[in-house]
Amino acid sequence: MSKLDSATHSFRLLEDFAAQKNPINAINPLIKLLVTIAYVSVISSFGRYDPGSILPMAFYPMMIFAFTSLDVGFFMRRVMFVLPLIMLIGIFNPIFDTHTFSIGNLYISSGWLTFCTVLIKGFLTILSALLLVGTTGITDIAAALRSIRLPRLFVLQILLTYRYISLLLQEASHLTLAYSLRSNGQKGVKYKAWGSLAGGLMLRTFDKAQTVYDAMLLRGFDGEYRVGTGYSLRLGDIVYLVCCVGFFFLARFVNLPQLIGTIVHSV
Amino acid sequence: MHMADALISPLVGGVMIAASAGLGAYSIKKTSTDLENKSIPVMGVMGAFIFAAQMINFAIPATGSSGHIGGGILVAAMLGPYAGFLTMAAVLLIQALFFADGGLIAYGCNVFNMGFYACMLAYPLIFKPIMKNGCSTKRIWIASIISTIIALQAGAFSVVLQTLLSGKTQLPFAVFTSLMQPIHLAIGAIEGVITACVISFVYGTRPEMLHINKTIKSEKRSFKPVIVALICTTIITGGFFSWYASSHPDGLEWSIGKIMGNKEIAVQGEIYTAAQNAQSSVAILPDYGFKTSDDTPEPDTSKANAGTSVSGIVGGAITLGFTLAIGGIIVLLRKRHDKCQS
After folding, report:
1. What CA–CA distance (Å, rounded) separates B55 from B49?
2. ipTM of the predicted structure?
3. Which residues of A touch B78 (CB under 8 A)?
4. Smallest CA–CA separation between B337 and chain A, in Å?
5. String of DSSP letters for A220-261
6. A225 touches B: beta carbon within 8 Å
7. Interface contact A183, partner B, CB < 8 A
């Protein structure tokens, strides 16, 4: 499957996940957005030299997987795809960090601790963003952004970009397939065709934009984004927000693994 | 160049989100007044085009490798700087949500690094001036390559600064910079060539679509946003970042300390004493902190921080005022010179 087709497939899968009926999907999108932002912020604030203290934060994505029927393999593959880029930055930490710590008689560079921290943080933050889309969907996220008074132009921009990505990915896929069938097994687009291939796609884009605008006008578009079914704020949503954010702050300020270890050790 | 959340602290991420939000609000204001609702589907579809174009691998001759465009200069060349910035912001948000290409806390950093430098600096300050005297294929090539390279160099350097300020990597500044800049020089050159090819193609087939052809009359540029941005940056840098200023000796003091055994060279002579006395009586914030008498104990950290912040803001205000004064004098002298000549 080409990169373009894989991207189209990912969009469709995430939309299907967001359309499922389960307790997490039914929560107010604004609440889920706030919880995700709080989650990512708290994880980013953890110190460098204690990767173990971040581990309790994995409870949140595990809970989401437990209450929904999301394909764990799909999300793990998407995260693993991006993780090597983070490893590339963190891999220098063991070399440049001159502090050391000991496990028994073994002295190890503290850079390995910071490397593990960066990896765990990267894994959890990337997963949380994907889970937000997988449980909410871009239309509801846009409604949540509009409800907190984000400018309508930007919200419309996000929605229209999203809507027409799949259309343009199809066009780009057809163009590159036609090119590859005519290029005798060549990899990538040759230099002489850069301008005409991408430029041709762009000109089709502009013509499509004119057609889209005319269709929108004929259907009563007046520049405002209107949400069909609104989400009301229920008691369950507030409880969800308080419990999640409360747990995040508890895990941040109390070293739960160490506490559990101390209790178990004393018993 | 997409930064992940693991590399950014909430503070740096928050500041960059605020900066990007400010730029976004300004872009929305400019786009709303310049264009009608018709621009919205155009921007949306251009965003989708940039997204799709980033998925196409362009084979780089003689290297066996391939690259893809970022799209900042391209989208600015088609839509203008403000609509281009909003388009890049939307594309980056979708990439962050759907493909985890860039984090949520790091979203502001990514928008700034890949949207601001290309659309709001390189395009109006490099691309447009080169094309000022009319479009031609040669000018498109020169403008595209230079503006893309500079935009990517600035963006890559910003990545280094934001990562180091967040304290998430032990990589020294020099090593990090020496890794990032050359790679992005190569990437910028390739992207510049691809951008030039695309814009040349559009110029050859539908030249009226280029934004540069829609803004033929010279614009009266207002410097108010630039001045406001400079003032805000000065206050933030002086008032906040100065807290993190190192109290260790700088390079010169360190070198002198190693040679002389003391970071300051003792001087003798009446003229030096007079100068020192004059300086100590005038200096309102010696060593960037509040003056303390010899009898008072060492100030605690919060007072030192408050003193440093006040120093930062006062120093910044004085520097800005001095710069504006010099600028004003130069403008006056030029006006007088032009009057004499005419």
Report:
1. 10
2. 0.72
3. 202
4. 47
5. T--S----SSPPP--HHHHHHHHHHHHHHHHHHHS-HHHHHH
6. no
7. no
